[in-house]
Design brief:
This protein has about 190 residues and is α/β, with parallel strands linked by helices. It contains 4 helices and 9 strands, in the order βββαββββαβαβα. It has one domain. The strands form 2 sheets. Strands 1, 2, 3, 4, 7, 8 and 9 form a 7-stranded mixed sheet that branches.
């Protein structure tokens, strides 16, 4: 399982085991990336383009039967494993022949979790686990994480926007953010 981290347009691939010296891949990504069902339905048309793969904006099937976006994992909202069953089934059914370098897209929005909020960070880590599981079971290469916060409130990286900024110093937030990152790196 590969984990891919994106910062703006720079991609870093972390691979367990021996490094493969294969050719570079051209991956389609953007706000118009397909959902799992779109990827399955339009794969043959996509494979006529010169891309080796794409990013996929996964969805969750809620108990109401409605599909919800699952690309914004930095939120307090609870996600259940069964909500990804339909997305996993669509990804498994896709069967790409040439576009085989596909990744789930993950953005750092909405960022409504304070770095000192243990319950909120438990949900964020669970979201990452569920997305990694979806990518793995769906036959994808991994997750493409775009750390740039595109939409308001942009608060995950602003000290003054943190709920606990009156109780904790900037230095304490730096330590906590590194702690959260180390914990998240250890979940794999």
């Amino acid at each position: 399982m590969r984990i891919v981290i994106a910062a703006a347009f720079a991609f870093v691939t972390i691979t367990a085991g021996a490094q493969n010296a294969s050719r570079k891949k051209l991956i389609a990504t953007g706000w118009d990336s397909p959902t799992p069902v779109q990827f399955r339905q339009y794969l043959s048309a996509f494979e006529k383009w010169p891309f080796d793969g794409t990013t996929i904006q996964t969805t969750r099937r809620l108990a109401s039967g409605k599909d919800a976006n699952a690309v914004n994992a930095f939120a307090c909202e609870h996600w259940a494993p069964r909500e990804f069953d339909v997305a996993i089934a669509d990804l498994k059914a896709a069967k790409p022949r040439t576009a085989t370098a596909n990744f789930l897209m993950l953005y750092s929005n909405p960022g409504d979790v304070d770095w000192f909020d243990d319950a909120g960070w438990k949900e964020v880590v669970q979201h990452w686990r569920l997305l990694a599981r979806t990518a793995y079971l769906g036959g994808l290469k991994g997750i493409l994480f775009d750390a740039e916060p595109y939409t308001p409130p942009y608060q995950q990286y602003r000290f003054v926007s943190q709920a606990g900024s009156a109780k904790h110093t900037f230095a304490q937030y730096c330590v906590k953010a590194r702690e959260r990152g180390r914990f998240a790196a250890d979940i794999g």
